[in-house]
Amino acid sequence: MLIADDFGLGRDHDRVILDLLERGKIDGTSVMVDGDIDPLDIERLRQLRERGAAIGLHLNLTHDFSGRHFHRPVGDLLRLCLTGRLPQQAQGAFHRQAETFHATFGFLPDYYDGHQHCHCFPGLDRIAATLPREDRVWMRVPLPRTWAGRMLNMRAGGPKTVLVMILAHLAARTFRRAGWETNSDFSGFLPLDRPDAVARWLPRLLSARAADTLMMVHPGSADDRSQCPGHAPQSRVVEAEILSLQA
Questions:
Q1: Phi-psi region for residue 209, left (φ > 0), alpha (ψ -120 to 50) or beta?
Q2: How does pLDDT run across 156-167, given as a tens digit for each residue?
Q3: From CA 49, how far away is CA 230, in angstroms rounded?
Q4: How confident is the model at residue 168 (pLDDT cuts 50, 70, 90)?
Q5: Host H or E run for residue 16
Q6: Cα–Cα–Cα angle for 31, 33, 35, rounded to 5 degrees
Q7: What angle do CA 75, 78, 79 make, to 5 degrees?
Q8: Of 215, 220, 229, which Cα lies nearest the Cα of 186?
């Protein structure tokens, strides 16, 4: 299963994801509801969901869209979580985003994940486990099932991948105790600020995945500067690899 992150991060970026969804090259996308999303694109997502695409909520506490809502750089947010000093306004952010998603689309998310995996941070995982859901709604856990998969993703994604996997392992126990379904396998750690590394590792990650692997990808437009700073140059590489390997 190929899932595109970060829908809502930029208009051109969104339209690349929509194009891949409509051509059946990817299986779903998760939406950052605080972003400036074109109403026509929202309607296209609704129609794609009726055709079987998975539309999830990309929980966000680290990317600032407007300054109206709580956000912190990912390192600062993790320190707050590890020390138990998460501000009160952050504790209700996930539920506010779920309510916004439901009001925008008219249905609850098919799944939940987190921008920079924030839903797996200590304390935030317990909040994520209380989000509204219907039957078959699941939570993304960024943890490869096998040691071979973990080693491959660590080589592709770099040292920070180890920390994410540790947090994901702990968060998975929280989600499962709360009755959530989770993905059984995962892949897609990449250094998005290094196009050469993306071009080297993405084909290997795609080729090595098992049939039930959830693959996180970041397709988008290299011309959309509203994407994460430093990430834009890799976007066309990601799209090209998806198209070539899924043809």
A1: beta
A2: 999 899 999 999
A3: 31
A4: very high
A5: helix 11-22
A6: 100
A7: 85
A8: 215
